[in-house]
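Exercise (ungraded).
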Amino acid sequence: MIGVNPYFDRLRGGYLFAEINKRAESFRRQNPEKRLISLGIGDVTRPLCPEVITAMHKAVDEMSEGETFRGYGPYFGYDFLVRAIIDNDYASRGVQMDPEEVFVNDGCKSDSSGILELFSEATSISVCDPVYPVYVDAAVMTGRGGLFDENIGAYSRIDTFQCNEDNNYIPTPPDASDKRAFRGLIFLCFPNNPTGAAINAEKLSAWVEYANRTGSVIIYDSAYEAYISEDLPHSIFEIEGARTCAIELRSFSKTAGFTGVRCGYTVIPKELVCDGIVLRNLWARRQSTRNNGVSYITQRAAEAVYSPAGKEQIRETIGYYAKNAGILKDALVSCGFSVGGGVNAPYLWIRTPEKTDSWSFFDRMLERCAVVVTPGVGFGKAGEGYFRVTAFGSRETAEEAARRFRKEFAK
Ligand SMILES: *Cc1c(COP(=O)(O)O)cnc(C)c1O
């Protein structure tokens, strides 16, 4: 017998960016003389830094000589990269990590969905609302989401934590009396995409305490940690108790412009045990079956991110995006918008004026400013009435967009 996985049919996402492109295209056709600015993209635009390029060239040369050629590498990453990760991302922040706890991958999107393989199909899942859609769609595709309920605007088997203006976009764990208090997987992402909110140590400690108390596991996506400018935790493992309840996902994509190169890593401490089983060992088994590692050239490129010159160069690029965020934020704030994010993240999350719905405001932005934003409702029901703006474009487009906002919305 054969049958197609029935759960793909339950997916709802995937239409957001298609719909944005459709509307932008139609605007372009009707207004060929207007220059459209996109603040919708969630991809970096600045080139790789020189130190990374040099390392890649060198690695390519090594691959061209018999003596230095490399075939299959270690399943979990070359030692030189794992060491650099531990020294620079953990030891430097006072966190001990064993090399066997770090798994180099081709960017963290694959593991943010693949990690579900470690858990039974009956495992409960909870996410923030609004949310990076990958966590939800991966759960749905593998039969863990249940049915989408139009009335509540969510999947029946996925719990959501609302993030809005009232809680400053930082959810707090349910207290013991809350009916929703549950044991399961909790996806957290800070600094957050889409809201740009960053969590402090106290609030993150509350989640770690909750997870340890209920036997839950936190999947902590810190793909944007490099954008943190305030005194906040970069890793969940800076929080006491996290080694027994958390898995961390990291990526070079936003840190060093690797969205096209592809490299990241997942950290699973050996103390993380579920049903008496050491999850790190299951993941090691899973990875050695599912993967043959990340290319040598890519891992040398990632290593170069941690060289003194590499660090300096990526800091400069992140500073460039941060300045864009500041320019856009200042303009929107001066027009009277309520603007979240943009300080520890390349995203701004903005309330639409007068409770306009996300898509109506998207159309207004397009027609009046020729600027493409992302409608907040595309990230979940709690995103209705918000829109997201990214700082990943050029300085010139950020300045031009800021001018157009002031012209259209200045009070
Ligand atoms: C961009 C992004 C990532 C990184 O994905 P990669 O596969 O490493 O490129 C992870 N999580 C979130 C929330 C992101 O926005």
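Further reading is listed at the end of the chapter. For now, observe: DSSP finds twelve helices and 17 strands in the chain. The longest strand covers residues 124-129.
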